[in-house]
DNA sequence: CATCTATACATCGTTTATCTATGTATCGTA
DNA sequence: TACGATACATAGATAAACGATGTATAGATG
C-alpha cells in the first residue's frame, strides 16, 4: 500500500531528527535508513531531504561537519542541545496528534 | 499543546468523511463536532472546510442536498457508496502510516 | 433598539512542504 | 566503458491548508 504523500507532511522532520538521536549521520544515510526501517513505505527524495537539513542547520537544531570515507565526501549532521529539546517536544506532539486522530476515527465505529 | 498544522495535512479529509459515516451532516456541524471530539485540538477554518466538501462532491464521494431548520439554510452531505469504499481505504492507510511512524520513533529509544 | 456573537455558507490569494527535474562527481561492477 | 548506486545541491512546479473577506440570519446582551 502506498501512503498519500500529504499524510507525510509534518512527520518528515521528526523522522529525520530521530535518526540523529544516537549517532551522527549524513543525509543520504538517514534517508536510506528510514526507507529500510519503514519497509520501503517512506522514501524521501533528495529534493525533500537536503532542504530540510539545511533548514534545521539554519535553525541551529543540527550542526554539520564534513567527513571523508572511501574517498567519498560526506556531510555529517549532529543534533544540538536545542535540537534534542525540540525532538522531545515533537515526539509529544506526534503522540498527541496520532492518538487523537485514531480516537476520532475509532469513535465513528460506535 | 498546539499541533503543527503541517501534521494535519492529509488527515483532514478522512476526519470529515468519518463524520458522515452514520448520518448526514452539514459542513459547519462537521467542523464543530471534530473540534469538540478532539477537545479543541483540531479546529478547521472555513477556508479549509468548504473547499474540501466541494472537492469531495466533484469526486462523487459525497452528495449534497439543501435543507432548512429554524429558518436557517443548511447544506447536508451524504456519503456515496464510492465514498464509503474510499473511507475504508483511507482508514487502512492512516493505520499503516501512524503505526509505522510510531514504530520508527519508538525504535530510536533502543 | 442596537450591537455583538454564533451560526452557515462561500471564495480569493498566500504560504509552504514536498516533489520533479536537473546538475555535479565518485565508486564499484558488468 | 557504460551503468547504477552513492552523495551532495538547487530551481521550479504542485497542491493542501490557511488567512482574509464577504454575505446573511438567529439569538443574546446591554
TrEMBL record, chains A, B:
- Which part of the chain is the Transcription regulator PadR N-terminal domain? 18-87
Entries under SUPFAM superfamilies matching the protein: Winged helix' DNA-binding domain
Q: This chain belongs to which protein, by name?
A: PadR family transcriptional regulator
The protein's organism comes out as: Paenibacillus sacheonensis
